[in-house]
Design goal:
It contains five helices and no strands. The protein is elongated and about 50 Å long. The two termini are about 25 Å apart. It has about 130 residues and is mostly helical.
Length: about 130
């Protein structure tokens, strides 16, 4: 129980990230249905096409979530600094939400900026985990 209270933000965000992936999947699927895209065929790489952007937003979250989960769990099990692990988890989550919205809105510079910040948050989680070991 102490683990849950100490790292409550990190734990909540792991669960919410699962929901975010589900929402992104539903949005991409609905965009595919609306556009008449036939399932199983590649989506043409056209950044002006919402279906392409929705599929890429989902794929981008899917690509980074495993690192987030591994760093979060390893950090908690290593008794990493809870302030930093929770704060960096929140930063990662907020960046993933912003990234999704900027991708949907075709805001390339903002999307890339928050993607970079989310990577810094992941690196921070890794460093926080490492400092608990030494």
């Amino acid at each position: 129980m102490e683990l849950i209270t100490t790292y409550h933000f990190t734990i909540y965000i792991m669960g919410i990230m699962g929901f975010l992936l589900l929402v992104q999947l539903i949005i991409a699927d609905l965009a595919g249905i609306k556009s008449g895209h036939q399932a199983g065929y590649p989506i043409p790489p056209d950044r002006n096409n919402f279906l392409f952007r929705a599929a890429r937003a989902h794929a981008n979250t899917n690509e980074s979530i495993s690192a987030f989960i591994l760093f979060a769990v390893a950090g908690m099990l290593s008794s990493a600094n809870p302030f930093w692990l929770n704060a960096l988890s929140i930063s990662y989550f907020l960046c993933r939400i912003a990234h999704m919205l900027f991708y949907y809105g075709n805001q390339k510079a903002l999307r890339s900026t928050v993607f970079g910040i989310s990577l810094v948050a992941l690196l921070g989680m890794f460093i926080t985990m490492l400092t608990a070991w030494f």
